[in-house]
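Project outcomes to date are best conveyed with an example. Our students and postdoctoral researchers have been running inverse folding experiments weekly, and each run begins with a structure described purely in tokens. The record below, which covers 47 residues, was selected by the lab manager from last quarter's runs and is presented without edits.
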């Protein structure tokens, strides 16, 4: 998390940290969706 914190504290102005945080959230959501898709795939295979 240290690298993420250093990016958020970078001197890019007021809006950049917000955009960075949103990108991080979107990335996490995409990862969760990918994991859910994988779980559903294995459930279908085993059914």
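After processing, the design step wrote out the following sequence:
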């Amino acid at each position: 998390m240290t690298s993420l914190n250093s990016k958020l504290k970078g001197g890019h102005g007021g809006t950049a940290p917000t955009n960075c945080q949103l990108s991080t959230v979107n990335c996490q959501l995409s990862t969760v969706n990918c994991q859910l898709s994988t779980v559903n795939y294995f459930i279908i295979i085993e059914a």
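The chain has two helices and no strands. The chain has a mean pLDDT of 76. The training component of this project remains on track.
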